[in-house]
Write a structure and sequence with these properties.
- The protein has 437 residues and is of the alpha/beta class.
- α5 packs across α6.
- It is elongated, with a radius of gyration of 25 Å.
- The protein has 17 helices and eleven strands.
- A six-stranded antiparallel beta barrel has the order 1-2-5-4-3-6. It has a five-stranded parallel β-sheet with strand order 9-8-7-10-11, with helices on both faces.
- The chain has three domains: 206 residues; 91 residues, Elongation Factor Tu (Ef-tu), domain 3, CATH 2.40.30; 125 residues, Nucleotide-binding domain of ferredoxin-NADP reductase (FNR) module (Rossmann fold).
């Protein structure tokens, strides 16, 4: 119930911010005049799409800044980024429709008027808007149609600040309802300024902020050919976290892992050191082997609401796919610490292709032997096929008031969630770590 309420409040928060300029616009002039003819109707539609598109674009920069209050408001940073992607797509579409409707308006006057509106180089306010949209289109094409490596994708997104800057100047300089209404002008300007601050905070100011935790790399434990666990010791204050949360990590090590990336915490809260699980497949994560003990790292976080402590029920089923086992490892270690309510009853299912990919399975099996309320099951898809909700339910005679935690590849989680809902499970009691940058 709390999760649903927070998700609803976060959506309401975004909707209110986005519709305020539309409400102001509607009260500026009678609708009968704004839609009195086909030409004025398309002009009004162009104004509406431009206002809402710029409002959502500004909001999107706020969502991308990783502010801690957003993590709490949206019940997890993963939810923030899901909303960020969706709002970005909506803003892009609205800003595409903005000039399209205005072009149609000019077509009602003449083809020449429409042509001059698009290609006139004498009106700098219009040119700034066209340039902003062109940059936006190029960046979106790169995002959706080019299979970039994560680091290149992240670098291209830094240029989105140009879109906001040029679009904001266009908005302020063009003769429009914004320039004619002080309330609308300052509201849109305020949103744009907050969005611009959020952009600079994340891309520039964030590098120098004091909120990061400073740690030292103690050792790198190779779990298998693709997975390592980093052991880090605090150089000053220790980070406080919930089992299952994640952090953003970067190393102050001459370019090696100097960009921040999200990694799951694998240690329990009482450990003196901090442990992080990393799958070393990409160019970025493979550089971890170049690090030496003593390297200084900076930790930002913690983030996320994916933790058994957030659940209302102590009867839980955890299902991990691949490297999705890492947040469950932190939770299992916490359960095994002996400082957790003994009323918890947990079944952990770990689905991997074969035994070679089953990282940390020996430790989890040992925890299962030591703790009667923690059961560990391995599922090898190469031999047994894909894990299903039916197979999980069959192994659990007691599914009353159970809550389910899913972590793994996106399709893996979507499929299992759908299967559990079809079996009658309450969707609000299914938790998943669907993190996507």
């Amino acid at each position: 119930m709390i999760k649903v309420l927070k998700n609803s409040l976060s959506v309401i928060f975004i909707v209110i911010l986005a519709i305020i300029p539309l409400i102001i616009w509607f009260f500026m002039s009678p609708l009968a005049l704004r839609f009195s003819s086909s030409s004025t109707s398309f002009r009004s539609l162009g104004q509406l799409t431009g206002l809402s598109g710029m409002a959502l674009l500004s909001i999107n920069f706020i969502l991308a800044a990783r502010f801690r209050f957003l993590d709490k408001l949206f019940n997890g940073l993963n939810v923030v980024y899901i909303k960020h992607h969706l709002i970005g797509a909506i803003a892009f579409c609205l800003l595409l429709f903005h000039p399209t409707f205005l072009i149609i308006q000019y077509l009602y006057i003449s083809l020449k008027s429409s042509f001059l509106f698009i290609f006139s180089m004498q009106n700098w306010a219009i040119n700034l808007g066209e340039l902003s949209l062109l940059v936006f289109i190029v960046l979106m094409v790169f995002t959706f149609y080019f299979n970039f490596k994560y680091q290149n994708w992240k670098n291209t997104h830094k240029y989105l600040g140009i879109v906001l800057l040029l679009g904001g100047l266009h908005m302020l300089l063009i003769p429009s309802d914004i320039s004619n209404n002080v309330t609308l002008k300052y509201y849109m300007l305020g949103l744009a300024i907050i969005g611009a601050y959020s952009y600079f905070y994340r891309t520039i100011l964030g590098v120098y902020k004091k909120g990061e935790y400073k740690y030292k790399l103690e050792k790198i434990i190779k779990v298998n050919d693709n997975v390592v666990e980093l052991k880090l010791s605090p150089l000053a204050r220790k980070i406080k976290f919930l089992p299952g949360q994640f952090v953003f990590l970067r190393f102050d090590n001459n370019g090696i892992l100097s960009e921040s990336h999200p990694f799951s915490i694998t240690s329990c809260t009482d450990d003196d050191n901090l442990s992080l699980g990393i799958k070393t497949l990409g160019d970025y994560t493979s550089m971890v082997y170049l690090l030496k003990p003593g390297a200084i790292c900076l930790i930002e976080g913690p983030f996320g609401a994916f933790s058994y402590t957030k659940s209302n029920s102590k009867r839980q089923i955890w299902i991990a796919g691949g490297i999705g086992i890492t947040p469950f490892l932190s939770m299992a270690r916490q359960i095994n610490s002996g400082k957790v309510d003994k009323n918890y009853k947990i079944d952990l299912y770990y689905s991997v292709k074969n035994s070679n990919e089953a990282v940390f399975s020996d430790e989890l099996a040992e925890i299962s032997k030591q703790n009667d309320n923690f059961k560990f099951y391995q599922h090898f898809s190469e031999k047994d096929g894909r894990i299903s909700a039916n197979s999980v339910v069959k192994n659990n005679s007691d599914i009353h008031n159970v809550e389910i935690f899913l972590c793994g590849p996106s399709e893996f989680m979507r499929s299992l969630r759908s299967q559990f809902v079809k079996l009658g499970f309450d969707n609000s009691k299914i938790y998943s770590e669907e993190f996507s940058l």
